[in-house]
Amino acid sequence: MSATAEAKPPSRREQILAAAAELFARHGFHGVGIDDIGSAVGISGPALYRHFRSKDAMLGEMLTGISEVLLAGGQNRIGQNHIGQNHAGQNHAGAPGTLAELVRFHVDFALDNPALITVQERNLGNLTDPDRRKVRALQRRYVEIWVEVIGDAAPGLDEPSARAAAHAVFGLINSTPHSRHIDRDQMADLLTRMALAALTDAHSRTALSEPTPVE
After folding, report:
1. What is the pTM of this model?
2. Are the CB atoms for 64 and 131 separated by under 8 Å?
3. The HTH tetR-type domain covers which part of the protein (predicted)?
4. pLDDT of 22-46, one tens digit each?
5. Among residues 86, 150, 185, 186, which one has the fewest Cβ atoms lying within 10 Å of its Cβ?
6. What would the pLDDT profile of 104-126 be if each residue is shown by its tens digit?
């Protein structure tokens, strides 16, 4: 496609998922019925069953899709060969840049998909057991990317601290999509700076708390 070509319009299935995400975020999963979702996309509630077998299946595909997008985006920013490398002897020169790219990726996703972030945060417990296991597995893989990148950027930070820092940054970024008081780009820059400052501070405080070796 040329650069001037129009973007492919969303499929009916994608339209349904987008509408359902907005409704679930606003009213909660149990506060939304099939008829509500159908009305939002201009079709009858029963017609939705041509695309999804149930509201549970809709939520499962939605949250699985979010997790897959986040994982793929994280992998794209670090390169497939990064995961599993031994820290010993590794060149950490580019690690801060990789961490900054990873932070900005998550910030952009959260700001551009506030309804999806809200649904993800609130509705994991409403998934069927198979879908919950699948989403959890994808989320764990995404967290491991963060833990390793944080560890590369701050070699003195131990693994439990890197893991705690990753979850803390998720909390910071994911809590803000619905509370913007500045424009989108300014918010993205602010969140990125705050997240990186928090990670840098976690490393600095850990280093300061370590005892000075006795010569």
Report:
1. 0.83
2. yes
3. 10-70
4. 999 999 999 999 999 999 999 988 8
5. 86
6. 999 999 999 999 999 999 999 99
> DSSP letter string over the chain?
--TTSPPPPPPHHHHHHHHHHHHHHHH-GGG--HHHHHHHHTS-TGGGGGT-S-HHHHHHHHHHHHHHHHHHHHHHHH-TTTTT--STT---TTHHHHHHHHHHHHHHHHHH-HHHHHHHHH-GGGS-HHHHHHHHHHHHHHHHHHHHHHHHH-TTS-HHHHHHHHHHHHHHHHT-TT---S-HHHHHHHHHHHHHHHHHHHHHHHHHHSPPPP-
